[in-house]
Amino acid sequence: MSFVIGFSHIWISVRDNCSIIKIVFEPMGGNMIKGLSLSCVILSSVLLTACGGGSGMFRGDAKHSGVTSESAPKKMSQLAWKYSAPDKTYSSPIVAGDTVYIGAKDGYVYALDLDEGHVKWKFKTQANIEAPVAVSGGILYVGSWDGYLYAVDISSHKEIWKFRTAGKIYTAPVVDGGVVYFGGQDKHLYAVDASSGAEKWRFKSSGVVYTSPAIGDSMIFIGTLDGFVRAINKKSGQEQWRYAVRSPVYSSPSVYDGHVFIGGDDKYIHVINIKTGQLKWKKKTAGKVFSSPAVYDGVVYFGSADNYIYAYDAEESGRIWEYQTQGPIFSSPIIASGSVYIASTDGNLYALSAKTGRVLWRYKAEQKVFSSPVVADGKVIFNSVSGEVYAVE
């Protein structure tokens, strides 16, 4: 969806992800340069108000597609910046507007400048933050091991509300239609109002909800540690179907072309019909699949604890390519500019050709990498477990 803002004689077309499609200036005489400068100030104000500093969430969108239209470097030229957090970072970075957000073991969310990597501001929870944050409508949503989901105003950096659960929150929140969806250690999936924090419904599972919810076809999909993939009605919170993986599910689901793609501790990648819950196909790797799949142009990409990155035909299940790293993979891939970006516990961030799996470049971090990279403004941003956040361009 797009909308148009018109004022004076400037027309701005903006997508709902806050990217500018077109700006048209219609000068009406007088000092055009002075008028243009003033217009640019007004333009900036309007965009900040309309977009709330941008939006961002784990895997790029509510479907967890793992795909972005942001440009990414096919050739690495340099390290743009590096930030060293005061404590370990198991969370993955999220970019919204001109800010990189990342949670740390010390309970803080750090807001870093996208261009230079310095800390712009930070917000304190009372325990470890393992899951990525979400940003929407000028509000940062973050779950903590202290059992609370926090809503923070990204302009004032102040808490708006917090919602209490009965256990640690492991999942990245997903914001869709004015509702925040998330789950945690207390075996519940929650739906709360994004503005007020008021509970809309909760679904009780028989297993811990470790995966971030994905949304598609009016349903919410989660994996649980008791070995099921579940489809929950988005409005009512009632279970529609469940699919038995028969082993814990740490991989977050991805929704693509009427199917849910998800990995399991059973070493398989599973592809499930979103309407019926029936298996379409599954393929076994030699290791547990913690990585959350990305699906693009008919191909599903994911990593495995067997050290390999895989690309399979999403429809026919045929293997297209595989690439071996030197460590188990927990990271989830992001697809940008025809390339696959994914990290390994061997400490490398890999850039691979999406078509062939050929290595385009790699960047070695100082420690193991469990997190998933994000692409923004021509940079690939990722972090190691020891707390270093890297921006490579």
Structure report:
The chain folds into 2 domains: 2-51, no CATH class; 79-392, Methylamine Dehydrogenase, Chain H (7 Propeller). It has a 4-stranded antiparallel beta sheet, with no helix packed on it. Strands 5-6-7-8 form a 4-stranded antiparallel beta sheet, with no helix packed on it. Strands 9-10-11-12 form a 4-stranded antiparallel beta sheet, with no helix packed on it. The two termini are 30 Å apart. The protein is 5% helix and 45% strand. It is mainly beta.
Strand ordering within the main sheet: 4-35-34-33
Radius of gyration: 21 Å
* Number of strand segments: 35
Q: State the CATH superfamily name of the largest domain.
A: YVTN repeat-like/Quinoprotein amine dehydrogenase
Mean pLDDT: 89
Calculate the terminal CA-CA distance, rounded to whole Å: 30 Å
Number of helices: 1
Largest sheet: 4 strands, antiparallel
* CATH top level assignment of the largest domain: Mainly Beta
CATH topology of the largest domain: Methylamine Dehydrogenase, Chain H
Number of separate structural domains: 2
By secondary-structure content and strand pairing, the structural class works out as mainly beta
Name the helicity range. Answer: under 10%
Name of the CATH architecture of the largest domain: 7 Propeller
Strand proportion, as a percent range, falls in over 45%
Described by the principal axes of the CA atoms, the overall outline is globular
Q: Which residues sit in consecutive blocks of at least 5 with pLDDT less than 50?
A: 1-52
